[in-house]
Amino acid sequence: MAESTTSASLRVFASPSRYVQGRGALADLGHRVAPLGSRPLVLTDDIVRELAEPTLEASFKDADLPLSFERFTGTPSRNEIRRVAEVITKQGHDVVIGMGGGAAIDTAKAAGDDAGAAWVSAATVASTDAPTSALSVIYTESGAFESYRFYDRNPALVVVDTQMVADAPVRFLSAGVGDALATWIEARAVREADRPTMVGGRPTRAGTALARLSWDILWESALPALRAVQENLVTPDVEAVVEANTLLSGLGFESGGLAAAHAIHDGLTAVDETHHLAHGEKVNIGSLTQLVLEDAPTDEIEEFAEFTARVGLPTTLTEAGLADAGDAVLGTVVEAAMASQETIHNLPFTPSRRDVRDALRAVEAIGRQGRIRAGLGAPQPPERH
Fold first, then answer.
1. Residue 154 contacts by C-beta under 8 Å, 6 or more apart in sequence?
2. Which of 89, 276, 309, 319 has its CA 20 to 30 A from that of 62?
3. Burial grade of 220 (CB within 10 A; 0-12, 13-18, 19 or more)
4. CATH code for the structural domain at 7-167
5. Which residues share a beta bridge with 118?
6. Annotated active-site positions, please?
7. Among 268, 287, 283, 309, which Cα is nearest to 189's?
């Protein structure tokens, strides 16, 4: 994010106006949206709409609000944002609700900003920390990272229904753990370097502390939470992990800062081989790469590889579809990860392209050993369709 001369010396903390989490939280969405506008638009995909529509119909009727849906096509691209903004403007909506995962939510933020409408995040999965932030991740139509887009405010409201999280495929929650674990790894690097965060100032102690709290909760509760979600159960561990993935990681990455893990994610999106991976799954490869680059203690790296393998996250290039990747493919990843605007430059040292490529290659052996210690066997390449 670009800094002004003044903001470069300031510490900044950002957050949504209101955060609501719990079983059945969507049933109260109408009453919570009513103070924000009288003509809301719900942006979501067909699957989430089918699951949520009966609840929203009752909720919005009780709040005396009209209920309108717009179909989200799946990618937060410039074209999709432009299209949704035109719908908001033409139909006179004054608040847009991004419902589902991070892609729909990021699109709603951008379209709402373009159309001058308030925006709300209604998360039905806990797969990323996007819902609370004042930024969107913009992708090309083919799914490659293009840029971050920043706003002068965070969502007016964030609602997370933990029963819907528990009813979703467990892979979504696992991916959210991967995204959130990176938050502390990156925030501590940014703190050491005293580099700018995603809100344009230096990291606050609060942002860094929340990143660490998210990390601590996940090491304690991620595995039991994932077991509970396999049975569609909402337990205290599930509630804790949803909060860690969504609220704590969201506040932590935005006001604590990003470094190499997310830059590596962005690089991985530049090659077609990795497009089967979710955001947090690519981020986990990035976290391991950052730990190697930092020359973190061997025990720390090995423990992280084993734990994240148990969580169900990819820890090897094989799982990422890069088992046989040559220098040209990895060079494309590295080139994108080290672009001038990328967050890898927030590290307290300056790695070379060779350093980053070698760290990526080192992940394969580290991840394989982590899987063996976790009793999971050799990694399997993705199926090609």
1. 14, 15, 16, 17, 132, 133, 134
2. 89
3. middle
4. 3.40.50.1970
5. 95
6. 179, 262, 265, 279
7. 287
Nearest to 176 by CA among 205, 217, 207, 148: 217
170-373: CATH topology is Dehydroquinate synthase-like, alpha domain (1.20.1090)
Bridge partners of 43, per DSSP, are 70, 98
In contact, 30 and 63? CB cutoff 8 Å = yes
Torsion, CA 274, CA 277, CA 281, CA 282, rounded to 10 = 30
Amino acid 3: pLDDT: 46
Other Cβ atoms within 10 Å of 325 Cβ, number? 21
Q: Name every residue whose Cβ is closer than 8 Å to that of residue 297 and which is 6 or more positions away in sequence.
A: none
The amino acid occupying position 118 is A
Domain boundaries, the chain: 7-167, 170-373
Which residues face 157 on adjacent strands?
Answer: 120
Distance CA 281, CA 128 (A): 10
Residue type, 300: E
Residues 6+ apart with CB under 8 A from 90: none
Write down the pLDDT at residue 5: 44
Supply the Cα-derived Rg of the chain in whole angstroms. Answer: 20
